[in-house]
Amino acid sequence: MSAIIDTFIAPPCHDEIGIILQDDHLVIINKPAGLLSLSGKNPQNRDSVHHRLVKLFPGCTLVHRLDFGTSGLMVIARNKAINAALCQQFSQRTVTKVYSALLCGHLSNDEGVIDAAIAKDPALFPRMSVCAISGKPARSHYRVIERVYHKSEDGTLLPVTRVQLTPETGRTHQLRIHCQLLGYPILGCDLYGGILLPGTEKTPRLMLHAGELNFVHPVSGEKINARSSSPF
């Protein structure tokens, strides 16, 4: 197997992490786009959600991650027992995550399901690939919110579709790959075709935001329905 060499160096992120909810057991945050979830091996990639939060909440651990370019809601466990309980909810797929995204082009269908297994491929790193043989099952739902024209940095009017994306599974890059497979990549996605169309090259960020997170509080049993409005 090919050795994976990660050469990515994250540019500085000056945006603050927003704290949506906190108690003795967990913290729900709003992650800015352009911030790693977890620090990388390269010391230049030390800044991350975990690196910042562990200073405020010693012993905290990530339950799940968002891609570097994705903004939005994450739940952080404040101890190992809470992490295990929340991870169980994620693995049992009782946690609901809903994303907002801008896709390149105007989708013809108003809603649908993308079902395509996703696999790691060291030769393509950092991209993942669709592979029915070695991939893990991955399923995403999409629903059109509106079809509009987005003004790019150079003034070009780009046809885009705002969609609500609901992943059933949580594979790496799942929504980004599935939208590309659909034929409408997420605007600003450098790995899966979102900066290839004329006028998209200078899109300032990945237009993907985790806007809803629903789960059961592992201690109180209360239903937590966190919301964060889309910044784009």
Automatic annotation (TrEMBL):
Pseudouridine synthase RsuA/RluA-like domain residues = 25-180
- TM ranges are none
GO MF term set: catalytic activity, acting on RNA; pseudouridine synthase activity; RNA binding
| SUPFAM superfamilies cross-referenced by the UniProt entry | Pseudouridine synthase
Alphabetically, which GO biological process terms does the record hold? enzyme-directed rRNA pseudouridine synthesis
One Pfam family from the UniProt entry? Answer: PseudoU_synth_2
| InterPro entries assigned | PsdUridine_synth_cat_dom_sf, PsdUridine_synth_RluA-like_CS, PsdUridine_synth_RsuA/RluA, RluA_PseudoU_synthase
What is the protein's given name? Answer: RNA pseudouridine synthase
